[in-house]
Write a structure and sequence with these properties.
468 residues, Arc Repressor Mutant, subunit A, 17 helices, Aspartate Aminotransferase, domain 2, Aspartate Aminotransferase, domain 1, 13% strand, four-stranded antiparallel β-sheet, aminotransferase, alpha/beta, pyridoxal phosphate binding, 3 domains, globular, seven-stranded mixed β-sheet
Length: 468
């Protein structure tokens, strides 16, 4: 096919990057639509007056950005709504046992040897205390009654989530809970609103379940109420899916006043709220969930993975009573029931206060790491919560996010760009997300942050600046 990228080509910068960004802008403007086959490398090179090598690099860059997909024997295509944008983020690099990357790329709580000790002690307790119902369980789809009772007390007393044991459902982690909640009230083709930058898992769910995910303007406190009101009037959404505490990737956290304003908009438009509250306990006590303001039209999802250990996939879904008869069949269809053995371990930690203690310890560990990051990256523009998992770092003008990511990897450091979190196909912000929990060794973490600081203070290497 013939396409004209000339109107979208930026005036400056490497030609291959200019072409990749022109493709992005053409998609955003609707000039190129998902499923469009692009010209061959030679055809586009001739039309733009550049080398075939430059077009090859441009297509490769566009593929890394999630814009296109190269199919062997078929050509290069504008991506349809598949999982291409998240594939680069989720796919790990080649194993490097001799020099593993310093990992600042994955949302991972700090997990120290003391956590492993607690886990082994809990397993010993479990061997003595576990109910036979754990291995006999077959039909309690929503979860074993006594495990739901335990969850209900914790959700009410610690998180302030309204409800009773009847509307507490046990799920295999927060991602599973979100899928079940959305599937309960959202049909194929429905519009769901969320933050303009949001967790990549929700973006993947939109493709899996076939709903239209629309991003809404955010600021330092998350979604902007006026923008949410305008989007509700424009799109007539079926649901709004929000993360009010420590939004991934920016760390934005709503104040109580912002929560009141957002809840008022949702109530006025009568749409369903699905609240992802998985990082609630990384914030000191004092904030109440959005669900507490809208108990009859809200689903609340949380889990223990971000405050205890990441492998404890104990998730909790609170469902409006009016929707229970719709939710339980979705739970049965996706997993039959959550794994009872996981919740037996969770019960031990919930009942003896370990979860609260570990959440407090996690906040302290993350606060120490945030102070280290602020010191190593002083002079640079960054946003972070005092006890947050992430740093949202703005880049100097010389650097593009994807270029910095590539150069950092060459120097043994893994970071994440904004691309996997973009709801719409628009140019991502020139920022990167740094996650501070995966590296247990503070010396390695400091080394990684210092490496990044050095790169930020330098110009990109000539190999990234060359113009063909």
């Amino acid at each position: 096919m013939t396409i004209d990228l000339t109107p979208y080509l930026p005036a400056q910068g490497p030609k291959y990057l200019a072409i990749a960004r022109a493709l992005s802008e053409a998609v955003r403007q609707g000039e190129l639509t998902p499923g469009t086959r692009l010209p061959t490398h030679r055809q586009l090179a001739e039309s733009l007056g550049v080398s075939v090598q430059t077009v090859s690099r441009a297509y490769a860059q566009a593929e890394k950005m999630g814009l296109v997909q190269a199919r062997v024997g078929s050509g290069t295509w504008i991506n349809t709504l598949d999982d291409a944008r998240e594939s680069e983020y989720l796919r790990g690099g080649e194993p490097r046992p001799e020099a593993p990357l310093i990992d600042l790329s994955i949302a991972h709580p700090v997990c120290l040897p003391t956590h492993h000790l607690r886990f082994r002690e809990a397993l010993a307790d479990l061997a003595e205390q576990a109910s036979p119902a754990v291995i006999d369980a077959c039909r309690p789809i929503a979860g074993l009654p006594y495990q739901r009772e335990c969850a209900n007390g914790w959700l009410q007393d610690t998180l302030g989530v309204p409800g009773d044991v009847e509307n507490r459902i046990l799920v295999n982690g927060a991602a599973h809970g979100l899928m079940v909640a959305i599937a309960t009230v959202v049909q194929h083709g429905d519009v769901v609103l969320t933050e303009a930058l949001t967790d990549h898992g929700l973006i993947a769910l939109s493709r899996t379940l076939g709903f239209q995910l629309r991003g809404v303007t955010i600021d330092a406190e998350g979604i902007v109420p006026e923008a949410l009101d305008a989007a509700c009037r424009r799109f007539q959404p079926r649901a709004v899916c929000l993360t009010p505490t420590h939004l991934n990737p920016t760390g934005a956290t709503m104040s109580q006043a912002r929560r009141d304003a957002v809840a008022e908009v949702i109530a006025r438009h009568g749409v369903w709220l699905i609240e992802d509250d998985v990082q609630a306990l990384l914030e000191p006590p004092g904030l109440t969930p959005l669900t507490a303001r809208l108990p009859r039209q809200s689903f609340h999802v949380t889990s223990l993975t971000k405050i205890t250990v990441p492998g404890l996939r104990a998730g909790y879904l609170s469902v409006p009573h009016s929707q229970l008869h719709h939710t339980l069949p979705r739970l049965r269809a996706t997993s039959w029931m959550a794994t009872p053995l996981i919740f037996e371990l969770a019960n031990i930690w919930l009942n003896d206060g370990t979860v609260i203690a570990m959440a407090s310890e996690q906040r302290g560990l993350l606060a120490e790491r945030q102070r280290l990051a602020a010191h190593c990256l002083q002079g640079h523009d960054l946003s972070a919560r005092e006890t947050g998992l992430h740093v949202w770092l703005s880049l100097p003008s010389a650097w593009r996010a994807e270029e910095l990511q590539q150069q950092a990897e060459r120097e043994g450091l893994s970071i994440t760009t904004a691309q996997p979190f973009m709801v719409d196909q628009s140019p991502p912000p020139r920022r990167v997300r740094l996650s501070l929990g995966a590296e247990t060794d503070m010396a390695r973490l400091k080394c990684g942050l210092e490496t990044l600081a050095r790169l930020l203070n330098e110009a990109p290497p000539p190999m990234l600046q060359i113009v063909y």
